[in-house]
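protien #1 (seq + structre)
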Amino acid sequence: MLERTIERFLVESVKTLGGKAFKFTSPGTSGVSDRIVVLPGNRVWFVELKSPTGRLTPLQENFARDIKGLGANYACLHSKEEVREWLIYLHSH
């Protein structure tokens, strides 16, 4: 499964929940997550999407560590199933 297919699924799924999944680029800063997901209830997540065999680059690993260290929410999702499981988790918390 291609990363863009998973990303499209994430965007559509978040939209059905009343949220937004903004495409995220930060000129001059490498390794930032693909999307910033904003969900009802003041829930904001930085989300990296990968194909099922995809791996984070060292710069992406640094971003994940830094963002988590700041107390922000971060997820790296590798499939439509992981997107579904993540959304179920969010719905239950």
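ok now protien #2
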Amino acid sequence: MSHYHLTEKQIQIVSTIHKHWLEKEEDIYMDQLLQEIPYTTTKESMQFSLRALVKKGIVVKRESWAVRRGRARRTYGITVFGKTMLRLEA
């Protein structure tokens, strides 16, 4: 099995992150991702999936915190490698 094989749910996560960026021109944070993803899951499960995508180099966890709704939130984006691998527009 390839190191870069993605499950259907991982592809949906990356697609949701990309769609959010295209629509709002900002990285997505966890609560937004949980609301926008096309299936229901727990925060813990999403964290597990994001860690796997980060490890594969598809998603990046931003080092800086974004202040949204008055709170500091960790945001996620797609790497250049991830966009290339999934053939997403820039």
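The mean pLDDT is 89.
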